[in-house]
Amino acid sequence: MKKLIIFLIIAGSIFFLFLYPIFAFSENIKIVSNVPVKVDDLLRKVGPFYLGVAPLREIQITRKLFRLEITYYEEPVINIQFKDGIFALTKTGFLIEKGNLNLPLTFANFSSSSYNKLMGSLIIYCKDNNLLNIIKSLEIFGGDVAFVDKNGILVIIGKGDYELKMNEYIKALEILSKRVKHIKSIDLRFNLQAVIAWRENG
What is the pLDDT of residue 2? Predict the structure, then answer.
């Protein structure tokens, strides 16, 4: 009799854990989010189950019979004025509808359909390092990420290594400070070294 009671208690506890899920299969989890996101990005996994407690990100969890409903909202960090309108950029690089008007605004000399997360990574890096004020407009140069700076210089970044490349860009401006107005472009795609092109009157 004692073993039966213990068995019923254990079985009941396990059933309750799934009835109002502490554990759930992926097919029993619904996500509502303003950005593309996977269950693995939000919940911890134990074997074939996902834990409905101690999430990986700040989320709202609603428990229903044998189901979890998750609401995840990713905050925008900056607005971007594209040729086809203003969109907001989230902290992980997704474009969403226009964010808070108090957010910083930067400009892109192309349509939002040409945006990719490499561009987003550059913008977020610049924002986090107080470098947004040097960017006059984002550009696409032969498929690579670029920007025109406040001096009218086309700065070709390429893909990735933004910290090293931005440091090289700043160093180049410091070295050539007396001739900045004669610089046409700075290309940082080659071994992280600044390749300078001069204006015709340079």
Answer: 55
Instruction: Report the b/e string of 143-161 with b at 16+ CB within 10 A.
Output: eebbbbbeeebbbbbbeee
Determine the 3-state secondary structure of 71 from DSSP.
strand
Q: How many whole angstroms separate alpha carbon 21 and alpha carbon 47?
A: 15
Pull the structure tokens for residue 95.
């474009």
CA 85 to chain centre: 19
Beta strands in 8-161 (DSSP E): 23-24, 29-33, 45-46, 49-51, 60-64, 67-72, 76-82, 85-90, 95-97, 105-107, 135-141, 144-149, 154-158
Helix (H) or strand (E) holding 166: helix 162-175
Please check whether residue 80 is in contact with residue 86, taking contact to mean a CB–CB distance below 8 angstroms: yes
Residues β-bridged to residue 135 = 149
End-to-end CA distance of the chain: 96
- Give the pLDDT confidence of 48-89 residue by residue, as tens digits: 888 888 889 999 988 877 788 999 999 999 999 999 999 999
Q: What is the pLDDT of residues 24-50, one digit of tens each?
A: 888 889 999 999 999 999 999 888 888
